[in-house]
Design brief:
single chain, alpha+beta, 2 domains, four-stranded antiparallel beta sheet, 12% strand, rod-shaped
């Protein structure tokens, strides 16, 4: 219990059960997950819950649930353990909803503004948070499954129905996390495609500009040669005629490229 950096787990003893679970909260601004460890001891005659760190509002709700179960219902400590675990697991739905909202905002930004570096940074930060979230939930699935299937006489048969529902909730959360991770992977592929498409657009524009100036450079190169006798060298309006030809050539190429939808 003194080690507050443990993964979620269940340990069975002859006189009780020891459960580690984490209360999670997400900071949507910094995209970080904050974890608070809860150590739960359950036995035939001693239901006890121990909070490590400062009591938050959520943990105070856990304490209220404990008082309600013990005071108003004739249930054992196994049901109390289920009620507290269920309260913690239900809070994971709120974390998942907030992260899904952030993922939708990234998707909207990608479709509206294109492949921006800020969108890329936000996307990779979300992937990191979802991976951390999944890393926190995976051990919990194993722990609640062990609690549901345990042969210990500390868990009543009437409580196993609730524990099966708890296992389903954890599985639903993991499925939601995996769906969001897949969506972020698709968004990452879309981001790469959008960046490549933007690069192709720039390269196409530069290619069109280069293509337009190739014949113009050729004409200028011809008339820039230092020979005394060129056919049109002594024309009175030769300079303006050449400029006009170059201008018409440029306009003609622009019209042609426009019809081909290259620009």
């Amino acid at each position: 219990m003194l080690d507050t950096q443990q993964r979620s787990k269940l340990e069975e003893f002859d006189n009780g059960l020891f459960f580690i679970v984490h209360h999670l909260k997400v900071d949507c601004t910094a995209l970080e997950i904050h974890s608070e460890q809860i150590a739960l001891f359950a036995g035939k005659k001693f239901p006890r819950i121990v909070f490590r760190k400062i009591l938050t509002t959520h943990l105070l709700r856990c304490a209220n649930v404990a008082k309600t179960v013990l005071g108003g219902l004739e249930k054992g400590s196994d049901y109390l353990a289920y009620a507290l675990l269920d309260l913690v697991v239900d809070s994971y739905y709120s974390v998942l909803d907030e992260l899904e909202t952030q993922a939708l905002e990234v998707e909207t930004s990608l479709h509206s503004n294109g492949a921006l570096q800020t969108t890329k940074a936000r996307m990779f930060a979300l992937k990191r948070v979802f991976n951390e979230f999944r890393h926190r939930i995976l051990p919990l699935r194993e722990a609640v499954t062990r609690l549901y299937r345990t042969e210990s006489d500390l868990v009543e048969d009437s409580t196993r129905l609730y524990l099966r529902d708890l296992v389903d909730h954890v599985a639903q959360i993991l499925d939601g996390i995996d769906n969001q991770r897949d969506m972020l992977s698709n968004l990452e592929a879309l981001f790469q495609a959008e960046a490549a498409n933007r690069l192709n657009t720039v390269m196409r524009l530069l290619t069109v500009i280069s293509t337009i100036f190739i014949p113009l450079t050729f004409i200028v190169g011809i008339y820039g040669m230092n020979f005394d006798y060129l056919p049109e060298l002594h024309w009175h309006y030769g300079y303006f005629i050449v400029l006009g030809i170059m201008f018409c050539l440029m306009i003609g190429m622009l019209i042609y490229f426009r019809k081909k939808r290259w620009i």
